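Hey,
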Amino acid sequence: MDTSALRKLTTACLAALALSACGGDDDNDPAPAPPAEAGFQLQLLHFADMDGATGALQNVEPFSAVLEALRAEYPDNTLVLSSGDNFIPGPRYFAAADPAMDGVPGVAVAGNGRADIAMLNAMGLQGAAVGNHDLDGGTAEFAGILAAEGNYPGARFPYLSANLDFTTDANLAGLVQSDGQSLAAMPNGLSGYGTVEVGGETLGVIGASTPSLGNITSTGDITINPSSGGNQALADVLQPKIDELRDQGVDKIIMLAHMQTLSVEKELATLLEGVDIIVAGGSNTLLADDNDRLRDGDSAADDYPLTFTSAADEPVLVVNTDGDYKYLGRLVVRFDDDGVLLTDSLDDTVNGAYVTDETMAENLEGTPNSDVTTIVTALEDVLAARDGNILGRTAVYLDGRRNQVRTQETNLGNLTADANLWLARQYDPSVQVSIKNGGGIRDDIGYFVIPPGSTSEDDLEFFPPAANESAGKAEGDISQFDLEGSLRFNNTLTVGDVTAAELHQLLEHAVAKVEGVAGQFPQVAGLRFSFDPTRQGLRSTANGDDVDQAGERVRSLALVDDNGAVLDTLVQNGAVVGDANRVIRLVTLGFLATEGGSGLGGDGYPFDFPLENRIDLDAETIPGGGSNLATFADPGSEQDALAEYLLDQFGESTPFNQAETDADQDLRIQNLSRRTDTVLP
């Protein structure tokens, strides 16, 4: 055992001798409250990004037990905060709207996302930043999740973001609260910042959201600041709000920053004055001590906490944990009488990432929150029923892993792009091409394992969806639950016209940030193209927004038929050939084809607005009635398209069988840095 782990074990067991509570684990066991010292001591319990994998629901009960056990160690000096992405459209989000959730304590009135809020209410969350996924359902749905309705209490905590103006959005304006109030006085509210009393001291809590919010979620008419200028411009927007808190006499300030990438929070720590702790969010970055026990396969990206020096030459701490209720971050820190952090008081036998499993809960002698257990049980019952709604079959694993769908063609990307094209042609047979963003695929369909004795990713073994006998689901069956997990945004489909030159530029944008694993990376049908990531991509501003369509990565592009035969060559050697204005009928996601405040579509797609001859399939009826075998999803939506396509094409006797291929074998999207040839003119 290393020295730090031994210290953590010794500290925990000494505490146990006094409290008769030693659980025998050497990681993050209870530590005794330190003797009285000068200044003020705070225990901050924090988390973020509870929005991802469908399996996250199984982590919530032990998470609640660990949280309650740690809070009990400092009952008067604990603050519980989230840095955003408290939910995401997906199976458990939609399950909360099932009529079976009516009357479940904390939910009471069924509605999308309400079970997630009910669990956070039960665990005593005191404030949260606005994350991008919190807005994925649009501002009207966000308002319906935050606000009370009948016996549904709404969020008993406020959402905070000092660089968002919610008053410009009609759905949210009525929830806006004045800055600077007590967090406890702003349930169901939206604000920039507030205060909270902890152990007789007043602390400030301020929120901040990534300025790229408008390109990655559904922000409605929210005004996002700054519109450009990078991290310094963001700091310039936030600093006056921080100063307002300090003018109130608040000298201990925590920022909940949902920036999507930890590098931004790190830089903000050095640019701002008056902020003591930044709780990062959106990047799912696991910070941990060397002596923290992590889940199998996990590794820490950096230490916990990270220490920086502010623009006022004072210490600032940055903390973060991985999402999906897998870890609870714990920071116990002391401030001097002037509100300055005493970094010498940091103790890695106490601070760090606490794995939220049953073992940790037992070692801490924590008990799952009974209200959380009730909500989880109700959700699991709903989800089990949906896993029994079988829509098709696959003989292979369908790859929806984040690092795959955002960097290369995958078999699941092909399948859902094909489904969108198939459904669009029922509305309009002239549709030729399907493009969607890989970032809209949020989970795989199937599972993978590392064989016993191996720790190498190269040894992963992949399998189609597992059987669920209790739901009547056989191995390889694809269920409603699977579709709701993978296509959890359930975007509507939009058809429109683009020229050959415009299609070229759309794909140029789509591959411009492949190195950054950006959500804009495409999954396609009806076309084949090659690109060279070593060439110049789109020029970008400091905050990552594309400013023009200059780029030379797409080297070749052709339209193909359903068998892959070339119908029309559009691009050779990086240039459009033939008539650049010839029209191509395209189906894409309504999210990508809807103009945002920046003049671009979702994920920054540079459509020429207004889209010519636009048809929004959710507002249209298929001529002749069309296929309508799947009824759980809205007509003209992605889930509906894939469900109908599976039912039509891939039943028990004809399962989908196109196995995932490595990038050097992909045909629709050919990465020239990974292969030496192309299957294109």
